[in-house]
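Progress narrative, work stream C.
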Amino acid sequence: MKSIRMAVVLAGALLAAACANDKARVSGNITAPEGSQIALVANGSALDTLKLGASGSFSGTVKVAQGDPQFVDVMFNGKKIAALLLQAGDKVTVKADTLGNWTVEGSEECAKLAQVEKNYAQFLKQVNVISSQAVDEASQKKASQELSAEYVKYYRSCVKYVLENTHSLTAVPVLFQQVSEDFPVFSQQTDAIHFRNLCDSLMTVYPSSRYVAALEKEAVRRENVLGWQTKLQTAESLGFLDIVLPDVNGKKVALTSVDAKAILIHFWSATDASHKMLNVEGLKPLYDKYHSRGLEIYSVCVDVDKANWAMAVKSQNLPWINVCDGLGADSPVLRTYNITNIPTTLLILDGAICNEPLSREEDLRRKLDSVL
C-alpha cells in the first residue's frame, strides 16, 4: 500500500512538473496607476488579463507548447507597450511605461526582440521626420534622397540581423516589417532567398512552429514571383517562356536547349486514343518530312500516369523529344502557356512564337515550307 501511495505521489509530481514546463511566467512593473489592467495578447487574442498592483506590479502565466515559442504583446488601453518571445519554462521580468519603452530580463530571445522592435521604431520615426520636412518641390527632392538613404541603411542592417540570427525566431518579424502599408522593408524580388534560407534554418530548430510555417508559405510565394520574373526576363530575349521537364529516362530537357530553326510544342494526353492517333497520322509524317530541314518537336504529355505515357512513347516509337512531369492538370507548364484545351500545338520560329493562325495541317505545312 505504501509503495502505491509513493507511486501516486511521484506521478502527481511528474504531472505537475510537466504542466509547469509548458508555461512561461511574465512579471514586472508598469508605470501606470494601481488597479489599471494590462492584457497579454498573441495573434490578436487575449491570453490573460492582469490588474496592476502597488507600484504597477503584475504577474501572470502564458501557456507555451514545448518547441513552439510564442510572440506575446503586452497591451495597455489597446496599445502595445512591450513585445515578448516566450518559450516554455521562461521566467521573464518586464519593466515598461505606457509609451512603448520597455526592458526585459530573463530571456535572451526577449531581449533580442526588444532591440529589434526598438530599431524598427527608430527607423519609422526617422522616416516620419524626413517626410514631414517635404513642404515644397525643393524640400521634397531632398527628402526623397534622404528617405532613400535611410531605407537602404536600415534594409542592410535588417539583412545583417537575419544572416546573423538564422536560428532565432526574432528574425521572422524582421522579414515582415513594412515602411508603409504597401511598402515592405524586404520588397526586392530577390529577397525570396532570405525568406527561404531563414525558413530552412529555423525548420531544423522549430519544425512545429506556427511562425516557421507562415514563413515557409511566404517563402514559396516569393519564390514563385521570382520564378515568374526570371521567366519573363528570359522571354524578353527569347520570345517564349522556357519549359524544363523530364523525358522518359528521367533526364530533364529544356525547351531552350533545343537547337532547331522551327520547334513544335505539342501538348497531348497518352490516355486519349485520338491523341495517340494524331502522333501516328499527323506528327510522324510531318517529322519525317521536315526534321532534316530544321524541325524539332517538343512533345509535352499532361498526364498523371507517367508509366502509361512512357509506354505509349516507346510503343509508338516517337522519335522526337517527349517530356512529362506527372502533374496532369496541375502542371505549371499549362499555366505558363495558358493551355486550356488539348491537343494544342504551338510553333516557335527563330526564337519567337509564331502568331499566325495554323490550326489546319495545310497551313502548318505551308508555313514550314516557307521557312525551311
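Work stream C, second folded protein:
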Amino acid sequence: MNKITISEVTLTQKKYLAEAKMRNHFAVIDEPLKSGGSDTAPTPVEYLLTAIGGCVSITLRMYAERKGWDLGKITVKVSQKETLGPKGIEKSLIEEISFEKEITDKQRNKLVEIAGRCPVAKMVKGETPIESLII
C-alpha cells in the first residue's frame, strides 16, 4: 500500500507568516508578537496540538461506533507542559479527554488505550521517521 499525504507550507515575505495547503484546504500559520510574528494565525505548535486532539477524538468516535457506545460529544484538550529538568527545559503533552455521556470504568480504560493508537499521536511519539531533503 502506497498512501501519500501531502501538506505544503510556503513562508511568505511577511516575517513568519506562512500559507499552508492541504488537499483543497488552506490555512495560515504565524508566530505571536513576542516571538517576532504578527499574531495573525495559530502557531505551528498550536496546529500540532489541534491535530492530535482532532485525531484522538475521531479515533475514539470510530471505536465507540464499532462498539455501539454512545459517548455524546467528545472533547479533547491538548496542552504542552514545560518543566525545568536536569537536561534543561523538558516538554510534554497532556490530553484531557471528556465525554458528554457517562462511561463505565471498563470503557474508560479501553478508551484511554485507544486514544494512544491515534495515528498523529503515534507520529509525535517518534514512531514515524522524518527524512529532510533540499531540492
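The beta strands are 7-11, 18-22, 25-29, 74-85, 88-99. No further action is required on this item.
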